[in-house]
Amino acid sequence: MPLSRTCARYTLAAALAIFATPATVAIADAISVHHTQGAVHGFLVLRSQAGATLGYGEFTQLAEGDRVTAHLVYRFRDGSLDDETTVFTQRGTFQLVSDHHVQRGPFFPKPSDITVEANGQVTLRTAGKDGKPEVQASHIDLPSDVSNGMVGTLLANIAANSPGFKLSLVVPYGKGRLIGLAGASAGQASFTVAGATRKAAVFRIKLQVGGVAGMLAPAVGKQPPDVLMWILEGEAPIAVREIGQLSEDGPVISVELAGATFPKFAAPAPAKSK
To answer: What are the helix (H) ranges across 70-181?
Structure first.
């Protein structure tokens, strides 16, 4: 089953939402549909770097014609919740329709509730000082490659020998902020299922803020680590592992396909400044 439609998803970029300075994000083409999405139901395990089980995830996906609805939920042992519902179309290319992503509980020091719609409407819901909910709405001109809630799906449609790819992502900073994602092949890695060894293509994804914010991030120690996505290729490719942060200043964790065994991991290093 595919992993977070996130690597992100807010998973990929929350730690970059730290500067209010407007950013310039390179616009790329939407990802072509090579593997049509259908009905899926699967389970995930969330682990710390030490290998401790932090919680579990459940993923369901339904397709009606060329319209797909995906729901991913992580439930943590400490009671925290990460819940995301993404709707997208697959008419030649993958196109986002809407994405609603909620994070709350002890694992997330900064709770988040953000909705991104294809027309550029971005809505953030937060708790006000009086405890009453506050709603902030804004508009962002979204490129065709916006990938909220869809990164796992998009990577399963990119060849491992691809010279690289670029995507964009809206993160819940201020009234919503558009940042860039730049990915490239990072070789292969092995894992086992029921004692059988399989090899996955590994993609390394770097986060690109752009503008003054992008130049300042490494200088103030706020540049987050890269994200690693493992894709089992074939006629029906699937994402089997994601290593990265789920939220701003959160720990790097591993989200893994339940029932599979993976090697221990070290946190990916931050992208080097050029």
So the answer is: 151-155
Q: How far is Cα 225 from Cα 271, in angstroms, rounded to an integer?
A: 7
Containing domain of residue 171, as a range?
10-261
In a domain, 89, yes or no: yes
Check if the beta carbon of residue 137 is closer than 8 Å to that of residue 121.
yes
Contact 245, 10 (CB under 8 A): no
Residue 195 φ then ψ, to 5°: 85, -10
pLDDT score at 9: 40
Q: Is residue 271 part of a domain?
A: no
**Per-residue pLDDT band at 218 (split at 50, 70, 90):** very low
Residue whose pair of structure tokens reads 């009606």 in the numeric block: 64
pLDDT in tens, 147-159: 999 999 999 999 8
Name the residue among 180, 106, 107, 104 with its Cα closest to residue 145.
180
∠ Cα 263 12 148 (to 5°): 125
User: Rounded to two decimals, what is the model's pTM?
Assistant: 0.83
Across the chain, mean pLDDT equals: 83
Predicted local confidence at residue 274, as pLDDT = 43
Flag whether 272 is in a domain: no
Residue 195: both structure tokens together:
């004692």
- The one-letter amino acid at 267: A
List % helix, strand, coil for the chain (3-state, nearest 5). 10, 50, 45
Q: Which helix (H) or strand (E) holds 213?
A: helix 211-219
266 domain residue, yes or no:
no
When divided into structural domains, the chain yields a total of 1
